[in-house]
Amino acid sequence: MFRPSLAAFAAAFSLAAAAHAETAMPFALDWKFEGPAAPYVVAVDKGYFTAEGLSVEVSEGAGSLDAIPKVATGAFPVGFADINSLMKFLDQNPGAPVTAVMMIYDKPPFAVVGRKSLGIEAPADLAGKKLGAPPPDGAWAQFPIFAEANGLDMASITVEPVGFPTREPMLAEGQVDAVTGFSFTSTLNVIRLGVEAEDVSVLLMADHGVALYGNAVIVNTDFAKANPEAVTGFLRAVAKGWKDSISDPEAAIQTLMSRNPAADAALERQRLQMSIDDNVLTDWVKQNGLGGIDEARMAKAIEQTKSVYTFVKAPDAKLYFDPSYLPTDGSLTMY
């Protein structure tokens, strides 16, 4: 009778384990578990990452710049961050192993959110007013471009550095006249604090001369070079999470609530829908699919950044966005 040895059993078990081993890809969000984070949670809970052979844990962030150093240092292989801030980071840290690989906010949510009762209805109204701006905020990082595009003198605005937790409360209490922030974050937060929706003015920078892109999935390039199939699989799973969230936002928010049970489900449902309608599912994305960029528009975005930021080295779009990891199997098609 054939009796396999203990060593043979161990070898077989080791091979089986290796065959089923998952690549760990912890993902650093830009912000908290709010509506726009739902697609990534959906991808986790529906097993889309697991199907790609990946083990993914989604972690909250502390602003749209927060994930960049996390990914550059290798603490996280992938993250979600503002591509414009990534440009400046790479200029100040040449050779840092980080780049964007999938555009999510084709139309960025960078906004100035104010109150009509405090005199804020148009960009010109900011002159002589007090603006609350968190230093790590992606919208604040782009505010000089917004000011330049609208002929605003920065010196005419009193800028109050504020923390993220106090930003909307200060606007609700009238301590500042407007704040910088993501449209779907600050708008709904200030309404939740009791400000009438009719009193809230939302100046979306993309509607006022700012041609920039927004947040993208970023990757540690050393990790990506060593694990190209894992990165492509990750992006494919993200696309599936967004598709599901677009087709059934209510179910997506229910999935999100397991990570943030104290959240207001109706509010987060509204926040997710705002991000879909205003930032993700643009006409360009409907035509070209999720994740890519238009080279001509990217060149214009770099020129706008140059108008308010002096690059140490000549900017190079290839350093900031690498489309080579995007899946080519049709999974990025939104319709």
Automatic annotation (TrEMBL):
InterPro entries: NMT1/THI5 (IPR027939), SsuA/THI5 (IPR015168). Residues 38-252 form the SsuA/THI5-like domain. The keyword Signal applies. It comes from Cereibacter changlensis. The keyword Signal applies. Keywords: Signal. It comes from the Bacteria. GO terms for biological process: thiamine biosynthetic process. PANTHER family: 4-AMINO-5-HYDROXYMETHYL-2-METHYLPYRIMIDINE PHOSPHATE SYNTHASE THI11-RELATED (PTHR31528), RIBOFLAVIN-BINDING PROTEIN RIBY (PTHR31528:SF15). Residues 1-21 form the signal peptide. It holds the Pfam family NMT1. Transmembrane segments: none annotated. This is NitT/TauT family transport system substrate-binding protein.
